[in-house]
Amino acid sequence: MSTDVLIVGAGPTGLALGIDLARRGVDALVVERAGELFPGSRGKGIQPRTMEVFDDLGVLDAIHAAGGGYPVGMIWQDGQRVGEHRMFDPVEATEDSPYDEPWMVPQWRTQRILFDRLEELGGRVAFGLEATGIEQDANGVTVRLSAHGESSDGSASLRRGAGNCATSHDGPAAGNRPLAALPAVLRARYVVAADGGRSAVRRALGIGMTGETVDPNPTLVADARITGLDRDNWHIFPPRGEGDGFLAICPLAGTEDFQVTAQFPEGSSVDLSLEGVRKVVAARSHLAPEDVTEVRWASDFRPRAALADRFRDGRVFLAGDAAHIHSPAGGQGLNTSVQDAYNLGWKLGAVLRDGVDEALLETYEEERRPVAADMLGLSTSVHRGEVRRGEATRQLGLGYRESSLTAETRQAPAALRAGDRAPDGTLGGVRLFDAFRGPHWTLLAVGVEAPELPGPVGVVRGPAQESYGKGLFLVRPDGYVGWAGDTADGLPRYLARAGL
């Protein structure tokens, strides 16, 4: 069996990439080692830039419906409310940035929404399947697959998940429909490793990771049902004495659950059982053990920051946690990962479907690795209390000004430069995010005449406006300005390079 792209890992990164490729008509298969989608809440914050990405991928309405805003932190001491804590510096929505603050959606629900969208577009996910060997040649990648219960001919009998998230969260699994048996060896033109921080693909390629332990203290995170606390606040219980850790209990928007987070001294073992969670909640708050009525998912971790030494090896790309591991502070990990997929998806589509030179794929690492490095530094600084959550953590200021794919040709460019995120707004009566939505390029003619362009490029015309000033702006499929000019001089050369 062969496919254009094999995506290893059905987390937010792999599913978002699968959606982007499916809408471009690229044949892709997502394989996931686990037998179901991730069942926990861990990556619950969706930043404004990722909300814009989800708008383009067609899942924003579902994401809005599934979550809610972040509650105000309430600090407790000896059973009394003693003060409030604002998690984020306030930022008002503007016309060019319509999503002002992070949106809380438990990770399991985000993945379910992405999975449903992928199936809607005809995409495929095979659960219970692991990539155990990779060999490359000039034309493609041969991937050896293994699964539980192999047939006599060596093929793996797999299942297609029908949104099979954990039954504890979303009622009984929607049933598993049979997926045609896959061979033990699969051929792909490209492979994307989106298989997490312990990526088997990255290790098989021999790609190292450079990083540090952000905090040696182990941390418990659990989804639980709890009585005796309101759902209007994020409840914070500071350490009571030396050697104690903090406890935070956050209502998970769109569910009846709370996320319990508790830090322990270095070297401690973390009890993930119901009794273990009850014990730490009762010891650090005014709640009784029986107020924790159920633990629906639990895990422990030690915050770490690490960056892969490279994001590409021949025809194999690293994305998401396989390429960068973040502290959860500041909510940068899932968001940076989804944006990896958003950057890579259109480039793979251009090469595989539009015949663009493969050199375009070299810009993936060039653009995304510096961004990931910056976001790792930001996550670590937020974790250590050196930076507050605010403008930087919203990720709207990220861009690719230094990319070889960026061309700024104006004599006196304004604040908005080629390589920057293309703002929303209205031009000639058209909302720009509506014009950008879809797998195409868009030319904005702002206060100047628009040249004749190939069919695949959308064109929006209008007078000079505040966000863009005046000029021609060619917006990439991922919503960044690729080329900007006072006139169309140089635009044909750029379009030819992009395969348009």
Automatic annotation (TrEMBL):
Entry GO MF terms: FAD binding; oxidoreductase activity, acting on paired donors, with incorporation or reduction of molecular oxygen, NAD(P)H as one donor, and incorporation of one atom of oxygen
Requisite cofactors: FAD
Chain intervals for the UniProt region annotation (Disordered): 147-174
UniProt KW keywords: FAD, Flavoprotein
Gene3D superfamilies per UniProt: 3.30.70.2450, 3.40.30.120, FAD/NAD(P)-binding domain
Pfam families, alphabetized: FAD_binding_3, Rng_hyd_C
InterPro entries reported in the protein's UniProt record: FAD-bd (IPR002938), FAD/NAD-bd_sf (IPR036188), RIFMO-like (IPR050641)
Residue intervals of the FAD-binding domain: 3-150, 186-376
Protein name: FAD-dependent oxidoreductase
Species this protein is from: Streptomyces chartreusis
